[in-house]
């Protein structure tokens, strides 16, 4: 171990962002990473969190774990609350007590989607789903406790890992001649690897270490599309001939209500941390290349 190595805990190692951070962590030998899944640190149990942090201390906690099953959350609000709110509150308390820096990830689903311009961090929140409400409570708990660190709101995350829209479309597109995809939900996709990179740029900047407020920052890839455009672009890149029909949200009912418009304005994160954000189609092509590889 290098003498001055800072330690970083990454929760949710088996998720998209956790896996992406693990992948890029080799580029940061100046940090000693610990990656945890629910077996080591079960965020649905306060005693598990307490026990874990009695044994372990870190300079940074990057919380990639979350209850992310947006539709299931409608029928499991207590579990969603435990992981997305109560556990986040506990992590914020631990971070404050241990003087660790907390990087927490939140969501565009804290907004109701009625805006006509990209959301800035200070816009009014109004979640339309149990998931969005639980994530907002997590944000608010952090902002009350005020550990060093930040909250990053992101949207439409995809990667080489786990279940996500890109992998689902690649599978369905190979099997089917036609698919119907919603065109009246508009947002910005986020390649988890780009977000992981942005997180490490923020950590490396050391700018979080003397912040008195836990600021919120938006991050997604650049550009805007509907799920319909997203699906068509996946097929174009991959040369899949599956036809795509544009349908309305009302034609594809889901348990949870999703915002019709959830584009995030990234001016703040770009300016404060000098982050260059890739265009969504460029990152999508990179991800599809990595899935093929
Ligand atoms: N995916 C999106 O489109 C999206 C959009 C906006 C914001 N976000 C936010 O971005 C962050 C990362 O999302 P992601 O896409 O990487 O999520 P993900 O792939 O669903 O990963 C979430 C991880 O959390 C873990 N987890 C769930 N319950 C846990 C518990 N009780 N204890 C410990 N770990 C637990 C899961 O473990 P298992 O693997 O064992 O289930 C999973 O590995 C989350 O905060 C999410 O809310 C995601």
Write up what this structure looks like.
By secondary structure, the protein is α/β, with parallel strands linked by helices. It has a domain of 203 residues: NAD(P)-binding Rossmann-like Domain (Rossmann fold, 3-Layer(aba) Sandwich). Helices cover 39% and strands 18% of the residues. The protein has nine helices and twelve strands. The strands form four sheets. The chain has a six-stranded parallel β-sheet, with helices on both faces. Helix 1 crosses helix 6, helix 2 runs parallel beside helix 3 and helix 7 packs across helix 9. The chain is globular and about 55 Å long. The mean pLDDT is 96. NADP nicotinamide-adenine-dinucleotide phosphate (NAP) binds next to helix 1 and strand 4.
Label the overall shape.
globular
* Uncertain spans: none
Named CATH topology of one domain: Rossmann fold
Kindly state the number of beta strands: 12
> Which value, in Å, is the CA radius of gyration?
19 Å
**Which ligands are bound?**
NADP nicotinamide-adenine-dinucleotide phosphate
Specify the number of helices: 9
Q: Name the helix and strand elements from N-terminus to C-terminus, one letter apiece.
A: EHEHEHEHEEHEEEHEEHEHH
Overall pLDDT level = 96
Question: How much strand content do the residues show?
Answer: 15-25%
Give the end-to-end Cα distance, rounded to a whole number of Å: 33 Å
* Gross CATH architecture of one domain: 3-Layer(aba) Sandwich
Taking the sheet with the most strands, its summary is: 6 strands, parallel
Structural class: alpha/beta
Looking at CATH, the homologous superfamily of one domain is: NAD(P)-binding Rossmann-like Domain
Name the helicity range: 25-40%
Please give the order of strands in the largest beta sheet. 2-1-3-4-5-10
Which CATH class of one domain is shown? Alpha Beta
């Amino acid at each position: 171990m290098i003498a001055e190595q800072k330690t970083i805990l990454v929760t949710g190692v088996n998720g998209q962002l956790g896996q992406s951070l693990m992948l890029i962590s080799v580029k940061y030998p100046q940090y000693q990473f610990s990656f945890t899944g629910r077996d080591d640190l079960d965020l649905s149990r306060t005693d598990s969190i307490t026990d874990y942090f009695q044994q372990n201390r870190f300079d940074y906690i990057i919380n990639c774990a979350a209850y992310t099953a947006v539709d299931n959350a409608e029928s499991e609000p207590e579990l969603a609350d435990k992981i997305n709110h109560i556990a986040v509150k506990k992590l914020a308390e631990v971070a404050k007590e241990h003087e660790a820096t907390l990087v927490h990830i939140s969501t565009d689903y804290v907004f109701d989607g009625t805006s006509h311009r990209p959301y800035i961090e200070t816009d009014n929140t109004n979640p339309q789903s149990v998931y969005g409400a639980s994530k907002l409570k997590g944000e608010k708990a952090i902002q009350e406790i005020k550990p060093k660190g930040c909250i990053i709101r992101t949207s439409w995350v995809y990667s080489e890992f786990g279940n996500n829209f890109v992998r689902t479309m690649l599978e369905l597109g190979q099997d089917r001649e036609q698919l119907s995809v919603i065109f009246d939900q508009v947002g910005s996709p986020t390649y988890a690897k780009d977000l992981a990179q942005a997180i490490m740029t923020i950590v490396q900047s050391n700018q979080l270490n003397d912040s008195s407020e836990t600021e919120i920052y938006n991050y997604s890839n650049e550009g805007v599309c509907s799920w319909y455009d997203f699906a068509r672009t996946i097929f174009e890149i991959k040369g899949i001939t599956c036809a795509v029909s544009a349908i309305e949200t009302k034609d594809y009912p889901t348990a949870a209500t999703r915002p019709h418009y959830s584009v995030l304005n990234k001016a703040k994160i770009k300016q404060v941390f000098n982050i260059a954000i890739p265009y969504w189609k460029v990152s999508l092509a990179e991800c599809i290349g990595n899935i093929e590889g």
